[in-house]
Amino acid sequence: MDPPPSQSRRPPSSPSSPPILPDELMAEVLSFLSVKSLMQMKCVSKFFNSLISDPAFIKMHLRRSARNPQLTLVSGKCVADFRFVILPISKFIENPLITLPEKHFYPLLDTHHYWLVGSCNGLLCFSHYSAFTGSYRDCWLNFYNPATNTISKKLGYFKDYCKHRYFFSRYAFGYDSLTDNYKVVAVRLVGDGEIGDGVSETQLRTEVRVFSLRDNVWRDIQGFPVGPLRLTLPSENHGVYLNGSLNWLALRNCYGADRFYHSNDITLDQFVIISLDLGAETHVQLMPPRGLEEVPLIEPTISVLVDSLCFCHDFKQTCLVIWQMREFGVGESWTQLYRIKYQNLQHIGCWLPLHISHNKNTLVLANRRELLAIYDWTNNTVEIITNKPRWAFCKDYVESLVPVP
Amino acid sequence: MAEEVSSQMNSLSISETNPSSSATISLVSGDDIVFKVEPTIAKEMETVQSFIDETDGKITTIPLPNISSHDLPYVIEYCEKSIAGKITKEFEAEFVKKLNNEEVKELFLAANYLNIKKLLDFLSQVIADRIANKSVEYVRRYFGIENDFTPEEEAKLREELAWTFTGVDPDDEDEN
């Protein structure tokens, strides 16, 4: 019987020669380092330089990095006053009195307005808009990796047309692991009749286009027969990304041409979640939790929290209810995670959960008055953060070496 | 080659002299020291366990020519703690405090050879922590890597990456 095969390149226990790590173990070690450290280590040797740029290594590093989730906190309600900061969640919960950098953190281009569309695998996607020219405005995208400090050129340029400004395109950003491709999805509400100019009653549906980063081209795909909510403003929680899908909370049989959430005019069976598979580019309709007993007065939202799709809504202006879809796509798996009385949050109304810790004890919430709250579920204590800047919304973020297109 | 023969002979003699010890596993280090461990410990070491399985458990003395008698007790200690579910942050901090840079690398190679995933991950993190934020020269020394860039190539790369070279720690005295 042979002894277990030797993998080491050197004879054992020879104290004169220091141990040399084989390449695959070197990759293992380096995958635990921060992006900044890795950027420096490109200078160590040609092998280090090529390893740190290798797609397989970049994926391995991303998997490790995902264990240290961060938040991109965005300040400013209007696009002109938009600034953001990135920091680890643990650090934020310890010290939420973060100050924004004086300057715009992001290397601003010659752009009229821009907006953070989404964050995926360490890449941030921004949409840019020119000023309105009649019914048109110019739009384009770019992609930024803050960790490697690299930014793409302008991509996906197109002219967006609409007579009514609520109906310009909105974007969402995600990744398809099957084809290893990043995609931006643009959705635009359309009506059967001519919208705007006094026309207010038209059944709404959604035109959908997909921008593939690999092909650098927009394509039309099958539209949604519904009207996604929260398209009326550049908004935080439409088109949420989860494991290769983008998801929108929407209304079926939706009429109107304005801000179309009016709880009195809506019935429960109108709510639906549209889930677009970024690989197949086909969508399915998922039902919201059955336990939703009545149409919430305030527009409900969906979010990705604790790695699941969550449905968040107000209940009779007394509490915030958060449901978790434990098994993605399975309607029966909706479970009520929290029911938090507003009195425990010291402020009534309109709370939006930004983050839930893995042990589910700590929640970070924001509300429309731009207060931020860190709520401790086990002790039922809350810390309200009212300092400026006031946070508008946040995106999950992980540091990565993923190259910009 | 001579070493392998000697360790096999060594293991033979041990099995003969300890016929009743079938419940325990004997691990024989590269420098021929025998460590008796419980079978549960062997299970943590995938390489050892698959060797036992291949021989239907008939052979319980395992030569480990790549691992020294200096490193093996550390591996065994870690596996014992792991089985007992007592791998805490405190234990890990104490565990690595005792190890200098060369020992950490030796142990890392041992964990890889024995295929102990938890120990391998832990030591990856330890080594990463020890080189994080260190200068390029320090990292080369740490791993015994020769700089194969030309001075021009290196200068160009450093210039491109200049923005990352802020807040680098001063080099520690190399421990070895």
Automatic annotation (TrEMBL), chain A:
> Which Pfam families has this protein been placed in?
F-box (PF00646), FBA_1 (PF07734)
Q: Which residues form the F-box domain?
A: 15-60
* SMART domains found in the cross-reference section: FBOX
Q: Tell me which stretches of the chain form a coiled coil.
A: none
* Annotated PROSITE patterns: FBOX
**What NCBIfam families has UniProt attached to this entry?**
F_box_assoc_1
Record protein name field = F-box domain-containing protein
- Species in which this protein is naturally found: Pisum sativum
UniProtKB/TrEMBL annotation, chain B:
Pathways involved? Protein modification; protein ubiquitination
Offer one Pfam family short name for this entry: Skp1_POZ
Keyword annotations for this protein, in alphabetical order, are: Ubl conjugation pathway
- What residue stretches are annotated with the SKP1 component dimerisation domain? 117-163
- Give a yes or no for keyword Cytoplasm in this entry: no
- Keyword Nucleotidyltransferase part of the UniProt annotation: no
The SKP1 component POZ domain sits at 25-81
- What InterPro entries does the record point to? SKP1, SKP1-like, SKP1-like_dim_sf, SKP1/BTB/POZ_sf, Skp1_comp_dimer, Skp1_comp_POZ
Question: Which stretches of sequence are listed as region Disordered?
Answer: 1-23
An annotated GO BP: jasmonic acid mediated signaling pathway
Q: What family classification does the UniProt entry report for this protein? A: Belongs to the SKP1 family.
Q: Explain the purpose of this protein.
A: Involved in ubiquitination and subsequent proteasomal degradation of target proteins. Together with CUL1, RBX1 and a F-box protein, it forms a SCF E3 ubiquitin ligase complex. The functional specificity of this complex depends on the type of F-box protein. In the SCF complex, it serves as an adapter that links the F-box protein to CUL1.
Task: Note the subunit structure.
Answer: Part of a SCF (SKP1-cullin-F-box) protein ligase complex.
User: What name is this protein filed under?
Assistant: SKP1-like protein
